[in-house]
Specification:
With 509 residues, the chain is an alpha/beta fold. It has 18 helices and 20 strands. The structure holds 5'-O-[(L-methionyl)-sulphamoyl]adenosine. This is Methionine--tRNA ligase.
């Protein structure tokens, strides 16, 4: 059995979860669930990034201690994962002194042992939004390109520095050769273009400037830089410090899923830390884009932040998952709007999938007393070939982190089924040619069975409901190999009475 280790980035606890976080969680969840279907031993980690100046200031502004503030928000993130039906195996908080801090201490000491940390006086402009010192190229009119609302901190202090520049050649080589894969290609090129200019980075702040963090081992006058602290979550959670078997089994990560704004931390600083500590680099970094809202950047000032809880409450987890995964092209930016969501709902879910399930159930209910005994011999060769072709494309897209395309293939198959019903008119054949009616219904039910498997990583609850309707075995082990799904026609399917109807009722205006 192969292993598959996937992580999300860990969101800052300076605010509640928003729909952008939800996008990252659901994309990671599809990959985790897909790999479980392939029979991999999957470990899926998420968590929260809790230290640094930004969080400390926001807690203060809310009249709370950092601990109180982050404890409350961490619960919100745990809850949103649950509400979205995310199948993470673990959740790490960087404020966790037992699970996380020992890993950070250990890696710091490894860097010291390599002589990769040195102290120097430094003058610079610090952006609390980025949690990073900025270079001239990061500035527009003296403000941070990304967080231009607030002023920058002018800093003059003594910090520990990390010799990032020592590793940049090696990292570049590994990225170019795809030994360390950055997906999509455009992001790989972006990082290759800026790697030559990479300089050593400040890896600590004096306690007077930053107290809310992990103290530098053997130098309590300094606090570890929040990114050095946060990136280490990917190994601390596996028990890196305690020599845990989970670390030995699952490291290196197969996929770190991150947004485009934090790629350089993951594709430069993190691999440099790992090389310095003598650890393997992750296999790959998958980079997703940003969600805008009605064409505008999501921001507190504009007041257009979309709260995932209320969208899930209104439409259900699977509808939100479907929208995010289908509408936002993996790896690119996309747009959220209630209108787009409802159009997708009515078009794809109510009229497409919901209609297919509904009419299948109704035909069986009305004409076969609610029970169709499945006859594998009735499945047409042409139908098997069509499903096979679409399923192969579905897999190819999943393997290339084109999740929206995989869903597109699933909906092509749903379209094939709906057209098949329209063309074969079972409501007529049931009276004129009962044998033909049974052939039609068997083929439709067979497609539905395949559709349910294709939906499993994306919309697990919906897939389950369809399996129930079909009386099908949903144990993935019975598939033997998910990549050859259609060749394994189930021995028993039994579309049964009253199930699955009204899966996605049309929304009232
Ligand atoms: N704490 C760091 C990550 C540390 S990982 C060791 C951080 N946190 S964040 O809360 O700002 O962002 C968390 C994730 O959400 C990032 O991958 C980021 O790109 C993503 N998104 C933030 N806003 C987003 C959108 N509007 N759309 C999609 N994803 C967005 O960065």
């Amino acid at each position: 059995m192969n292993k598959f280790y996937i992580t999300t980035s860990i969101p800052y606890l300076n605010g509640r979860p928003h729909i952008g976080h939800a996008l990252e969680f659901v994309q990671a969840d599809v990959l985790a669930r897909y790999n479980r279907l392939l029979g991999e031993d999957v470990w899926f980690l998420s968590g929260t990034d809790e230290h640094g100046i930004k969080i400390s200031r926001t807690a203060q502004a809310n009249g709370k201690s950092e601990k109180e503030f982050t404890d409350e928000l961490a619960e919100e993130f745990r809850l949103v994962l649950k509400k979205l039906n995310i199948s993470n195996n673990d959740f790490i908080r960087t404020s966790d002194k037992e699970r996380h801090w020992p890993g950070v201490n250990k890696i710091w000491l490894e860097l010291v042992a390599k002589d990769d940390l040195y102290k120097k006086s430094y003058q610079g402009l610090y952006c609390a939004g980025c949690e990073a010192f900025l270079k001239k190229s990061d500035l527009v009119d003296g403000r941070c390109k990304i967080h231009n609302m607030k002023g920058l901190d002018v800093v003059e202090e003594e910090n520990w520095f990390f010799r990032l520049s020592k590793y940049k050649k090696e990292i570049k080589k590994k990225i170019e050769s795809d030994e360390f894969r950055i997906v999509p290609e455009t992001r790989k090129n972006e990082i290759i273009n800026l790697i030559n200019d990479a300089e050593d980075v400040s890896f600590s702040r004096p306690v007077e400037s930053l107290k809310w963090g992990i103290p530098v081992p053997n130098d309590p006058s300094q606090t570890i830089y929040v990114w050095a602290d946060a990136l280490t979550n990917y190994i601390s959670a596996l028990g890196y410090a305690s020599g845990d078997t989970r670390f030995n089994k699952f490291w290196p990560a197969d996929v770190h899923l991150v947004g485009k704004d934090i790629l350089r931390f993951h594709a430069l600083i993190w691999p440099a830390i790992l090389l310095s500590a003598g650890l393997k680099l992750p296999e790959s970094i998958y980079v997703h884009g940003f969600i805008n809202v009605d064409g505008q950047k999501m921001s507190k000032t504009i007041g257009n932040i979309i709260d995932p809880f209320s969208v899930i409450e209104k439409y259900s987890a699977d509808v939100v998952r479907y929208f995010l995964l289908r509408e936002i092209p993996s790896g690119e930016d996309g747009d959220f709007s209630y209108k787009k969501l409802e159009d997708r709902y009515n078009g794809d879910l109510a009229n497409g999938l919901g209609n297919l399930v509904q009419r299948t159930v109704t035909l069986i209910e009305n004409n076969l007393a609610g029970e169709l005994i499945y006859k594998p011999a009735m499945i047409e060769e042409e139908m098997k070939n069509k499903i096979d072709q679409l399923f192969k494309e579905y897999i190819k897209n999943l393997d290339s982190f084109l999740l929206h395309e995989s869903l597109g293939k699933t909906w092509e198959l749903i379209g094939v089924a709906n057209k098949y019903v329209d063309d074969h008119k079972p409501w007529i054949s049931v009276k004129e040619n009962p044998e033909k009616f049974l052939v039609t219904m068997n083929n439709v039910v067979f497609i539905l069975y395949n559709v349910a498997w294709m939906l499993t990583p994306f919309m697990p609850e919906t897939a389950d409901k369809i399996f129930k309707t079909l009386g099908a075995d949903r144990d993935a082990k019975t598939l033997e190999n998910y990549k050859f799904l259609v060749q394994k026609t189930p021995s028993s399917l039994n579309a049964s009475k009253g199930q699955g109807a009204g899966l996605f009722p049309r929304l009232e205006k």
